[in-house]
């Protein structure tokens, strides 16, 4: 017996687990490790130019022949050249964030890619289905980084009822219980970000990983609500400073200037006091750094136990 | 033609939870009526349902005001 879903066939992967395409964090090393372990590793293009991302793609292809993905941040100043790169490289799976990939879907699919946008609402999920995307990722506000309003628990079943393509749940999932819960809601798989930051293969600074290991339940706070682009990151000097400015009614440009380049400072330089340590609410659950393969193996085993034992016990 | 306008205004009022009196031809969904980008997606889908049309993303991007919506719908209906 092995836990498998329709997502495995769709993306040609063994386990219904996707690693989020986090900017700066999701490098070729991490994506390759997740893909080699039977999940779907994703390179995060973030705000990087095409030549930088090309190197990450080459890294993955050198390390594994399994399918992998590329996340395109549509608001990036380099979005256009990343889109062209994705098409030339025939990336197996393309996920998109921060915008509507509408006009590019057909070109991606013509290049042989599966297209899986991240959607924050039922209406957008329905529009994406109409564009014939292959699946959608539904990400709740529990997630790290840029977030929407609704929780995973509330949004996932509503989207599942509204569309008939596979739905991947994200936000607040880091262990087998979370995977089992998502599948119970009707999801075809999960995407996890924060859990994979604490993978041995993740190249983020040790300080960044340690901050997540040390985080407790209430530490992943939201900054930037007043700017219209809220971000979830671990409470530190930076988040407190932004919170103060927001309370004082400071104008958006000033707050955005303060936040610019802060993720890079945290991930690359390990500045976890003045940097933006983007992480989800589930950070408090993560207690160890493990190889990606072990994270995935544990997740599947634990989910199978939960589904087999707990669910049956509830009925007795 | 005015019928399209009044139906558009009614949908905008309903979808964005604002009074009909607060809406005029120049009202921008985002700047004047407090919508966010996801509200606009829902609004466009409500237009599609009401007028039984399909509005592609490329066109939807240009529908920012009541007038934009009325003109667009008049063109395609």
Automatic annotation (TrEMBL), chain A:
It comes from the Bacteria. Keywords: Flavoprotein, FMN, Oxidoreductase. The keyword ATP-binding does not apply. The keyword Transmembrane helix does not apply. GO terms for molecular function: nitronate monooxygenase activity. InterPro entries: Aldolase_TIM, Enoyl_ACP_red-II_put, NMO. Nitronate monooxygenase that uses molecular oxygen to catalyze the oxidative denitrification of alkyl nitronates. Acts on propionate 3-nitronate (P3N), the presumed physiological substrate. Probably functions in the detoxification of P3N, a metabolic poison produced by plants and fungi as a defense mechanism. This is Probable nitronate monooxygenase.
From TrEMBL, chain B:
Keywords: Cytoplasm, Fatty acid biosynthesis, Fatty acid metabolism, Lipid biosynthesis, Lipid metabolism, Phosphopantetheine, Phosphoprotein. The modification O-(pantetheine 4'-phosphoryl)serine is found at residue 37. 4'-phosphopantetheine is transferred from CoA to a specific serine of apo-ACP by acpS. 4'-phosphopantetheine is transferred from CoA to a specific serine of apo-ACP by AcpS. This modification is essential for activity because fatty acids are bound in thioester linkage to the sulfhydryl of the prosthetic group. PROSITE patterns: CARRIER (PS50075), PHOSPHOPANTETHEINE (PS00012). Pfam families: PP-binding. It is found in: Cytoplasm. Pathway: Lipid metabolism; fatty acid biosynthesis. GO terms for cellular component: cytosol; membrane. Residues 2-77 form the Carrier domain. GO terms for biological process: lipid A biosynthetic process. One of its GO terms (molecular function) is acyl binding. NCBIfam families: acyl_carrier, PRK00982.1-2, PRK00982.1-4, PRK00982.1-5. Carrier of the growing fatty acid chain in fatty acid biosynthesis. Belongs to the acyl carrier protein (ACP) family. This is Acyl carrier protein.
